Amino acid sequence: MKPLDVRHFAFAFLVGALPLATDAAGAADPLPSWNAGPAKQRIVAFVKAVTDKAGKDYVAPADRIAVFDNDGTLWSEQPVYFQLAFAIDRVKALAPSRPEWRETQPFKAALEGDVKTLAASGEKGLLELVMATHAGNTADEFAQIVRDWAKGATHPTAKRRYVELVYRPMRELLDYLRANGFKTYIVSGGGVEFLRALSWELYGIPPEQVIGSSVKTKYEVRDGRPVVVRLPEIDFIDDKAGKPVGIHKYIGRKPIAAFGNSDGDFEMLEYVTSGPGARLGAIVHHDDAAREFAYDRDSHVGRLARGLDEAGKRGWLVVSMKNDWKIVFAPAR
Amino acid sequence: MKPLDVRHFAFAFLVGALPLATDAAGAADPLPSWNAGPAKQRIVAFVKAVTDKAGKDYVAPADRIAVFDNDGTLWSEQPVYFQLAFAIDRVKALAPSRPEWRETQPFKAALEGDVKTLAASGEKGLLELVMATHAGNTADEFAQIVRDWAKGATHPTAKRRYVELVYRPMRELLDYLRANGFKTYIVSGGGVEFLRALSWELYGIPPEQVIGSSVKTKYEVRDGRPVVVRLPEIDFIDDKAGKPVGIHKYIGRKPIAAFGNSDGDFEMLEYVTSGPGARLGAIVHHDDAAREFAYDRDSHVGRLARGLDEAGKRGWLVVSMKNDWKIVFAPAR
What's the pTM value of the predicted model, to 2 decimals? Predict the structure, then answer.
């Protein structure tokens, strides 16, 4: 697979109402988009174990915290992180008043649609682009810009809105965990204010349960109105070893379940599954070229190598999109 | 009043069971430690307004967020911040292995019980002391040290444990707000990890709802065990204009109610009460020398001047400990 070759990026869409599956006893299946199989069994067994008051693995509701990576775990991340697509659109919108951007990277690449150069700059490059295009905005203004963008921005090959490219099985999993007393968090390398503007709508997750990379901000009274202003300076990078640090900073204790898809999630999975007590660590493996995309060891975006090598010995569940998911995306609206 | 003169620091204790007050209709009063009066009326009216679905001020449960300063608002802060007392005790415990501390400030002052010098160094000085005495600890080890200290550490004049010096009316207020769908947060200038170790027990607030000053941390695998380690470097000071920044960083949206007691809370109150919609800002005024302490404009700890000057024109409620609180502390255990 060539991750950055958008011609190979194909989605399959299911249209129409989905029948609600029921099990042998007639109870509604909380995870209807998951195929019966070891991945689904393991997730359900974990939830039953930690919610069984009589069992040895019982966890009190207040301690049932589950953390999810976002890009590639809850929604797609190819051909580039969606936040990078957003940043490129912002550069284009602001370019008329910034003629110097035509000669300065990474703005030049953004204006020329040179996605490969931009993607190679990684999450840090993306953050720099976002910072440069949004410094000076108040937090409220920035959130509104993100929401306005999300209303119309369309994926280059899927031909539907980015916000529709949420994985339906993961959305069901979030609901299922919450129905079982879990508090669900996003722990993303992406920008926290970008995600918080969308997390309610996409995942039913409130802003305070979104942890991500951030820029510094300052408080000021602007024209008589108290505001928080975004500064062009990185505050925190929530990736790799930054993820356990972010979890500790924001949550202050160790979650009992973690879901990721790339080596950027390795330390988070390692930290969360180190116990004590029952723990679940899982990796979404992008092995479905027909319905989404297939990539792992050699991808510029969402590289997964060490996670695949060590999942077995560490007891982490590897979820195959191809085999474990009956449905990938919700029907087009 | 001389705030640092412990001879003037007297508490009055009520002993025995408290009758549960009922109103004219026989319903249990959710705020029995508050005297009937304008402060209690205003708080109850605010809660009724934002929870009345038919009213113009209705706020959906997900947006009912209330923030509380800690020192001087939820528990006492005289003669010195309790975290400073903790840090002094840590210096004393560690001193045998650190002979150089006998000649180095602020350790020298801590070892000599020179509270005035320490208090004058402010919250930043306190943080430096805590950092120096705890760098290298893992987060879990630090939390255990705090809990062990809290079990026995006794206030110099109140002659009861520090953790018993929580204001009962404020504890009731937290419960009352939560019973009405509010999510309650602490937003403190104190160290976040110190507070998080105690917040469940003291206030029924989980660690993830405590915002405070922090040191940087790093993730590492130590002897095969993944841990978060505290570093001797300040990450964030959650005081004054830092409070709205901390609220934005951790919560990501504006609360609808804020409670403070000093000018360190001014910007938080200003930010929260700037609307839109119904808002409540309140200041606990320490005017009760008989039952706790009386201090405001001239205090080294918890100075309150601008807040008093502007509360009226800004519509902030000033709560008189002396007149509005029937009871200050829970009975001694």
Answer: 0.90
